[in-house]
Amino acid sequence: MTDDALAAVTAWWATAITRIQPGEIAFRGRPVQDLIGTTGFVDTIWLLVTGGDLEPARRRLLEATLVASVDHGPQAPSIASARMAATCGVGINSAMANGINVLGDTHGGAGQQCVALLGRMVREHREHGRDWDDLAADEIGRYRARGAFVPGFGHRFHPVDPRRNPLLSLVEQAAASGDVEGDHLRAGLAIERALASRGVPMNIDGISATVYGELGVEPELARGLFVLARSVGILAHAWEESSSGRRIKGPLPPPLLADYTGPDVPER
Fold first, then answer.
1. What's the pLDDT tens digit per position in 127-159?
2. 254 vs 84, 88, 156, 247, 248, CA distance in Å?
3. For this UniProt entry, which segments traverse the membrane (predicted)?
4. Sign of torsion, CA 156 159 162 164?
5. How many Å apart are CA 120 and CA 108, to the nearest integer?
6. How far apart are CA 183 and CA 121, in angstroms?
């Protein structure tokens, strides 16, 4: 093989993330043996994904957001899907994949969409100095014009999402101390004010989007971090269900059956 051909082969999966050699593993240039026991999991996530380090206040924000996102109970489709899969004889990895693959634009995508929304407001404010409340009114108007929900606000189950206040408090503290700029926070609160008359407060997706925006996380990567966090709950529920001894557990407990809405069946 020529040198050029060899170089083309080794460049095929070129990466700036992990260096692997016999007897060597390094993440972003840092030997794994130097990270083990000295670097927390959240810092390692950030290092691998972004190549950077987290200051203490920013680490606290990311860790709190990941903790807040780990689970929402067996009624969540991603969790229910994993639990059903676990009763069908698949391994834990397949049950987890089943749950993770349910996380799409509708169930699991609002955080990404909200990061994009807040980002648009922040850019418009910085470039043109527009008022936050005017920006919020414009954004809400666009969603209403197409009959869509404003992502990150309101919750089908919680009148007030119990994860909102503690995370909001942490972001406010970080903004007050200068650890984050605070513009995504201002944008999120402006949307919340505009929706207050409808009783639609910020939910976990909205406050998470605020954190991710303040940390400089791109919208799609924010969804990836949410999926990473929710994988913990998916694992826990799949493992619990796999230990129940129940086989082929469907969406309805027996002997209940789903309502039939098709044409009448002829009597025999």
1. 999 999 999 999 999 999 999 999 999 887 888
2. 14, 16, 27, 12, 11
3. none
4. positive
5. 20
6. 9
The count of residues in the chain is: 268
Is residue 226 within 8 A of residue 108, CB to CB? The reply is: yes
Is residue 70 exposed (0-12), middle (13-18) or buried (19+ Cβ within 10 Å)? Answer: middle
Topology of the domain covering 55-250: Cytochrome p450-Terp; domain 2 (1.10.230)
What's the whole-model pTM score? 0.93
Residue 78 is which amino acid? Answer: S
Q: State the Cα–Cα distance between residues 224 and 112, nearest whole angstrom.
A: 9
Rounded to the nearest angstrom, the gap between the alpha carbon of residue 39 and the centroid of all alpha carbons in its chain is 23
Q: What amino acid is encoded at 8 in this protein?
A: A
For the chain, percent of residues with pLDDT exceeding 90: 88
**Residue ranges of domains in the chain:** 3-38, 55-250
